[in-house]
Design a protein that fits this description.
Layout lengths: L4 H37 L70 H4 L5 H15 L6 H13 L4 H18 L4 H16 L12 E2 L5 E2 L1 E6 L6 H14 L4 E6 L6 H12 L2 E4 L6 H14 L4 E6 L7 H14 L7 E7 L4 H13 L4 E5 L9 H9 L3 E5 L7 E3 L2 H9 L2
Parallel strand pairs: 3-6, 3-7, 4-5, 4-6, 7-8, 8-9
Antiparallel strand pairs: 1-2, 9-10
Helix pairs in contact: 3-4, 3-13, 4-5, 5-6, 6-13, 7-8, 9-10, 11-12
The chain binds guanosine-5'-diphosphate.
Length: about 425
């Protein structure tokens, strides 16, 4: 069968039409594919949260960069951000002011060393019991006496005092002949007391006096020492000791060198109702000390305690500054005590510190801290010899009332179990 020419023409047109449609579909598909893949690369990060933030909005990623992964932590709103210098929110009717803790009544100071004697257990074992065991041997030959010497040196008694003690003990043991344990204990007690000294005035001088302008001036105590020895803690504990003894105290936070020291001191003061005078951080320590005494005079306080900056004894400039603090305070009148705080665990290093401080200020008393954590109770002897100044207080723990007036008899009894 043959087709008519009109069918032939129609068939040809249809072929062209189908071809045109196919081309058009392929072209559209190709264009939309390109756009989608391009969009994928340019996808923007999720929109920022609707609440206002202070963090900078995420930067628009450049074409071809990976989009920023969303932060996992929630963003803080402006209200939540701590603005520099912002005050704590004032108490409102809904949020009552935090309760002021009641003022503590520290325990009395008399007999504290006796109560805390167990804290000396390490020194007791090394020094007291060690010596008693050695001296109880039947034959006290040269080797034994050498061991006695070693025991004393290990406990930081110091070379010269050790030799003195051994010489005296040797002599007295020879005279004694046979030795009962009680006799030995008595002998050792006497000799250790002889080394430590029972005559020195170990009271902390805090009596008020007459100021530079004829007014009544509180007792002024400066507390000095290297950072970390327990200076600020000791100043706080001493405030408690004085309050326990019925005195009113003003604290001077002249350790402007260590950021947290003023807060630390203020907390100690608040616990016993003592006001703390402080200055700007890294401010002039001498002016804070001056203001503290001025405040003490204005308030008719009994005692002003000044915590000074922990001076690195190797830095001459800083040590000079300590001398300046004292001179500036003395414009109000005499400083009654300069207490040097030494960490008993630092041994010879503590003695070096003592020497350097004594060159800058007249030390009138020593506070030995951390005697609870050491077997080196003999440092009491060594440091007194070094400075020719008595140990007046000892720190026997981190507790608020673990600072005790130093009593030689109670100390020796604690060492040898008397
Ligand atoms: P500062 O830098 O000299 O003012 O030292 P701090 O007063 O801040 O004390 C340093 C650390 O020593 C603190 O952790 C105190 O609790 C601790 N400390 C102070 N005195 C004594 C003490 O007598 N015994 C013990 N075990 N720790 C003490």
């Amino acid at each position: 069968m043959t087709r008519s020419p009109s069918w032939l023409i129609l068939g040809g047109v249809m072929e062209y039409l189908i071809l045109a449609v196919v081309i058009a579909v392929v072209a559209v598909a190709a264009i939309s594919g390109l756009v989608i893949s391009g969009r994928k690369k340019k996808r923007l990060p999720p929109p920022p949260p609707s609440s206002p933030t202070v963090t900078a909005p995420p930067a628009e990623p450049h074409v071809g960069e990976e989009a920023e992964t969303p932060r996992e932590e929630p963003r803080r709103t402006i209200e939540e951000v701590d603005l520099p210098g912002a005050e704590a929110p004032a108490a409102t009717a809904e949020a009552p002011a935090p309760e002021v803790p009641p003022i503590e009544v520290p325990e009395p100071t008399a007999g504290r060393l006796v109560r805390l004697r167990a804290r000396l257990s390490r020194s007791q074992t090394t020094l007291g019991k060690g010596l008693l065991t050695l001296l109880s041997r039947e034959h006290l030959d040269d080797d034994t006496w050498e061991e006695v010497e070693d025991t004393l040196l290990t406990a930081d008694v110091g070379v010269a005092p050790t030799q003195e003690l051994v010489e005296r003990l040797r002599e007295r043991v020879k005279v004694l002949g046979t030795r009962t344990p009680d006799e030995l204990r008595g002998l050792l007690r006497e000799e250790l007391l002889h080394l430590i000294g029972t005559e020195a005035d170990r009271s902390v001088h805090t009596e008020s006096g007459v100021g530079a302008n004829g007014e009544e001036k509180p007792g002024v105590v400066m507390v000095v020492g290297v950072n970390g020895t327990g200076k600020t803690t000791t100043t706080g504990k001493l405030a408690r000791v004085l309050v326990a003894d019925g005195k009113s105290v003003v604290l001077g936070a002249a350790d402007t060198f260590r950021a947290a020291a003023a807060d630390q001191l203020q907390t100690w003061g608040e616990r016993v109702g003592a006001r703390t005078v402080r200055g700007p951080e890294a401010g002039d320590p001498a002016s804070v000390a001056f203001d503290a005494v001025k405040e003490g005079i204005a308030e008719s306080a009994d005692v002003v305690l000044i915590d000074t900056a922990g001076r690195l004894h190797t830095k001459t400039g800083l040590m000079d500054e300590l001398g300046k603090v004292k001179r500036v305070v003395e414009k109000h009148g005499a400083v009654d005590e300069v207490l040097l705080v030494l960490d008993a665990t630092t041994g010879q290093n503590g003695l070096v510190q003592a020497r350097v401080f004594a060159e800058v200020v007249d030390i009138t008393g020593i506070v030995l801290t951390k005697l609870d954590g050491t077997a080196k109770g003999g440092i009491v002897v060594a440091v007194q010899r070094e400075l020719n100044v008595p140990v007046k207080l000892v720190g026997l723990g981190e507790g608020a009332d673990d600072l005790a007036p130093f009593e030689p008899e109670a100390f020796v009894d604690a060492l040898i179990g008397g």
